[in-house]
Specification:
13 helices; DNA polymerase, domain 1; 56% helix; mainly alpha
C-alpha cells in the first residue's frame, strides 16, 4: 500500500486543500500504519479488515500514545481507506465500523486581560523589531488567527477602511475577521515605521508581499512567531504554560465572556463544526466554578 501514499498526498493537497504541515502529519501517521500491517504480513489493501485497524489502535495504546494522538492516527487511516475505495484500489473500507475513541474535552489554558496587556506592553519600544512584535501580538489577540494563518498574511490581507483582516484557514477556506482600533493602530505604525526597514531596500518584484517580515526581510516563520509569543510571556512574568493556540483560545474565551454569541465566534475562528467552538463555553463554566468555590461561604 505504500506505493499509494504519494497519490493520497496529492489528493489531500490538490482536492482537499490541506496545508503542508497537515499533509506531513498524515504521511507520518500512515507510514506508521503501513509498517504495522507489514509486520503482520498484510501487504495489500484488500487484505485489511476491521480487526487489523482495531489491533493497530491497540498497539498505539500499548506504546503509551495519548487518546488524542490515537484519534489523529485513526483519522488518517480512515481517510486513506476512503481514498483507496474511491480510486477503485480497494472494494471495501475496513474502517467504517471502527469507532473513534471518546475523548474528554480538555479546557484550554487562557490568559487574563491583564496578562494579555502585559505581554503587549512588554513589546513596547521604538526599535523595528519591537514595533513589529507589538503589531503581531495585537493582531493575534484581536483576530484569534492560527499561528500559520498569521504567518501567511499578505500586505493586502488587511482592509483599514472597513477594519478587517482576511485569513485563509484549513482547507483553503477564506474568512473575514473584524479588527479593533488598537490592532489597526499598531499595524499602521508597523507598516509605516518598521516594515520598510525590514525590507532592507528591496524594490519592485523582489519585495516580499508577506505582511510580517523577519529581520532578513522575508516572511516570518511559524517557528519564529511561536518563539516570539513565548519570549513576551516570559518578559511579562506569566507563569502559565503557553502554547501556540493560547492567544487564539484567549481571543475566543474573552469574546464569549463579554457576551458574543457562539455562532459569531465559530465564524471568526473558522471552525467547520460548532461543537469545536463549544469547548470555550467550558472555559466560562470553569471560571464560574472557580469563583463560586472562592467566594461562596460553603464553597
Amino acid at each position: 500500500m505504500k506505493e499509494f501514499i504519494d497519490d493520497f498526498m496529492d489528493y489531500l493537497s490538490v482536492e482537499r486543500g490541506l496545508s503542508p504541515n497537515t499533509i506531513l502529519a498524515y504521511r507520518r501517521d500512515l507510514n506508521k500504519y503501513i509498517d504495522y500491517l507489514s509486520r503482520k504480513g498484510v501487504q495489500k489493501a484488500p487484505q485489511v479488515n476491521r480487526e487489523h485497524v482495531s489491533a493497530f489502535m491497540l498497539d498505539l495504546k500499548k506504546h503509551d500514545m495519548s487518546p488524542v494522538s490515537i484519534c489523529r492516527n485513526l483519522a488518517a487511516v480512515k481517510m486513506f481507506h476512503r481514498f483507496l475505495v474511491r480510486e477503485n484500489l480497494s472494494k471495501e473500507d475496513p474502517t467504517t465500523l471502527v469507532d473513534t475513541p471518546k475523548l474528554w474535552k480538555r479546557v484550554p489554558s487562557v490568559l487574563t486581560l491583564g496578562e494579555i496587556e502585559s505581554m503587549i506592553a512588554a513589546a513596547a519600544g521604538r526599535k523595528v523589531q519591537q514595533i513589529r512584535d507589538q503589531a503581531i501580538l495585537e493582531i493575534f489577540y484581536a483576530s484569534g488567527l492560527r499561528v500559520s494563518e498569521l504567518s501567511d498574511l499578505k500586505t493586502d490581507s488587511v482592509n483599514f477602511d472597513v477594519g478587517f483582516v482576511r485569513a485563509v484557514g484549513k482547507g483553503a477556506k477564506e474568512r473575514i475577521i473584524p479588527l479593533g482600533h488598537k490592532a489597526r493602530e499598531a499595524l499602521q505604525k508597523y507598516l509605516q515605521k518598521a516594515r520598510p526597514r525590514l525590507l532592507k531596500g528591496r524594490a519592485g518584484g523582489q519585495a516580499d508581499d508577506s505582511l510580517f517580515l523577519s529581520r532578513l526581510g522575508k516572511k516570518i516563520s511559524r517557528v519564529s512567531l511561536w518563539s516570539l509569543i513565548k519570549s513576551y510571556a516570559r518578559k511579562a512574568n506569566i507563569k502559565k504554560e503557553i502554547k501556540p493556540h493560547t492567544l487564539r483560545h484567549t481571543f475566543a474565551t474573552h469574546l464569549l465572556e463579554h457576551g458574543a454569541d457562539l455562532r459569531s465566534v465559530q465564524e471568526m475562528l473558522g471552525h467547520a463544526d460548532i461543537s469545536t467552538t463549544q469547548i470555550y463555553t467550558h472555559v466560562d463554566k470553569e471560571r464560574l466554578k472557580s469563583a463560586h468555590k472562592q467566594f461562596h461561604p460553603r464553597g
